[in-house]
Specification:
Chain B: One of its GO terms (molecular function) is protein heterodimerization activity. Chain B: It is found in: Chromosome; Nucleus. The complex is a heterodimer of chains A (87) and B (129). Chain A is mainly alpha-helical and 87 residues long. In chain A, 64% of the residues lie in helices and 2% in strands. Chain A has one domain (10-84): Histone, subunit A, CATH 1.10.20. Chain A is built from three helices and one strand; from the N terminus they run H-E-H-H. Chain A is elongated, with a radius of gyration of 17 Å. Residues 28-36 of chain A have low confidence and may be disordered. Chain B is mostly helical. Helices cover 65% and strands 6% of the residues of chain B. Classes of the chains: A mainly alpha (87), B mainly alpha (129). At the A-B interface, helix 1, strand 1, helix 2 and helix 3 of A face helix 3, helix 4, strand 1, helix 5 and helix 6 of B. Strand 1 of chain A pairs parallel with strand 1 (77-78) of chain B.
Chain lengths: 87, 129
């Protein structure tokens, strides 16, 4: 648990967004490789934070139900709460 | 001579097309790892499936938002500023929690180096502007 994989699946993130919005470009010019990478990790950062929030909510729900493990209903409830923040 | 030709391509093409149409997504093993890292509790298998579904939806929403922001700014390219505005609206970035603190906290060192200028000896700043 301590050594979580920290690298971002950059090209996958790009592909996902490309899949949803083919006409949208993530800041990328061939010469600005750093730029390209930057945005890749920003999206990744956002995704990490999203998962973090989801995890916290799910955990709270599980505690409230006195459950020792996260069950699907906890995750669903957590997702609904986060949707409230627009996700 | 016609019959063998007709019979052949049917099973092959169906398999190949299915492979292609499956959409890109973050590997479920990675989602699992990140989620269980944050949640610090046992998670049932079905709950992971829910999390995966949520991530999918999250990405859809994310691309919608990014599109809206960039269109609003009259651009076609997503830039850093758009992401920052988005995260401000998500209440992830606030006055008390600036962007670079989040970056420092959540991203590994190699990425941090790319994102935050660091002053090094000799009065140089990396990355230079």
């Amino acid at each position: 648990r301590r050594n979580m994989r920290r690298t971002a699946p950059r090209s996958t993130l790009r592909k996902i967004i490309k899949n949803h919005k083919p006409q949208l470009r993530l800041a990328a010019d061939v010469d600005l490789l750093v730029r390209k990478e930057r945005d890749g990790c920003r999206v990744h950062l956002n995704f990490l934070l999203f998962l973090h929030r989801l995890a916290e909510e799910a955990r709270t729900n599980a505690f409230e139900n006195k459950s020792k493990i996260i069950k699907p209903e906890h995750a669903v409830a957590a997702a609904k709460v986060i949707k409230h923040f627009k996700y | 001579p016609l019959q063998p030709l007709r019979a052949k391509p049917v099973p092959k093409s169906s398999g190949a097309s299915r492979r292609k149409t499956c959409e890109p997504e973050v590997p479920s093993s990675l989602i699992k790892k990140i989620f269980s890292h944050y949640v610090k509790m046992p998670v049932s298998r079905d709950a992971f499936k829910i999390v995966e579904k949520c991530s999918k939806r999250y990405f859809k929403q994310l691309s919608d938002d990014l599109e809206a922001y960039t269109n609003h700014a009259g651009r076609k390219t997503v830039e850093m500023a758009d992401l920052e505005v988005l995260m401000r609206r998500q209440k992830l970035v606030t006055e008390k929690m600036p962007m670079h603190v989040l970056i420092e906290r959540y991203l590994p060192l190699e990425y941090r180096k790319l994102l935050i200028p660091i002053a090094i000896s000799g009065n140089k700043v990396i990355p230079c502007k």
